[in-house]
Amino acid sequence: MCAKSSKSTNDFAESVIENGEVLTIERMTEAHLPEVMPIEREVFAPGWSEETFRNDLRNPAALYLVLRLNGKLVAYAGMWLVLDEAHITNVAVKPEYRRRNFAKRLIHRLLTIARQRGCVKATLEVRISNTPAQKLYEKFGFRPVAIRPKYYDNTEDALIMWLEGLDTPEYAAVLQAIEQEFSKRKR
After folding, report:
1. Domain count, the chain
2. I need a surface site. Which of 71, 117, 125, 137 has the fewest CB within 10 A?
């Protein structure tokens, strides 16, 4: 079962220096919401409400992370841990900070935590039109399995993607290879 709870706000904190900039990933708390909500509205208009985030942050089966660049919150991601599954609920990067591997770092961290907590598979939904995100998820081993009609704002379909074998040594090697990509960028 991967739904083990961890209440500490610092148990997922990590800072690295990359190309002279400080990247910090830490657990999201309610104190982050004033910085998270403008990103949510910009990326997912209309997106989730602040109350939805507050409820999830109080849910012991939910875990959300934020990524700061030189102290500025520029991205976040979250997941639910239910039985032996991780369900990635959202990944958002401010548009002007895209293509810098921030989403990739957050997904890597979420899946690493899911593995540590005993999850054996992961799932997510992505807009059918969001091919860049789909390609990123495929790099992590997610595969499309179904379509959820009119999932987004009752207008756009969602592609349901699954990742099996999260708990295997082979998948540990996938995460390690991605981690090595990040290490090459550190300076």
Report:
1. 1
2. 71
What pLDDT, on a 0 to 100 scale, did the predictor assign at position 6? 47
**From the CB of residue 113, how many other CB atoms can be counted at a distance below 10 Å?**
20
List the domain range (segments joined by +) for residue 89: 14-185
Distance between CA atoms of residues 23 and 139, nearest Å: 22
172 lies in some domain: yes
88 located within any domain:
yes
Residue 5, domain member (yes or no):
no
SS3 101: coil
Catalytic residues, by residue number, are 125, 137
pLDDT at 9: 41
State which amino acid sits at residue 169. P
Amino acid 155: pLDDT = 80
Residue 47, pLDDT score: 84
Confirm whether 4 is domain-assigned. Answer: no
Token pair 């109080």 is at which residue? 58
- Residues lower than pLDDT 50 in the chain: 5-10, 187
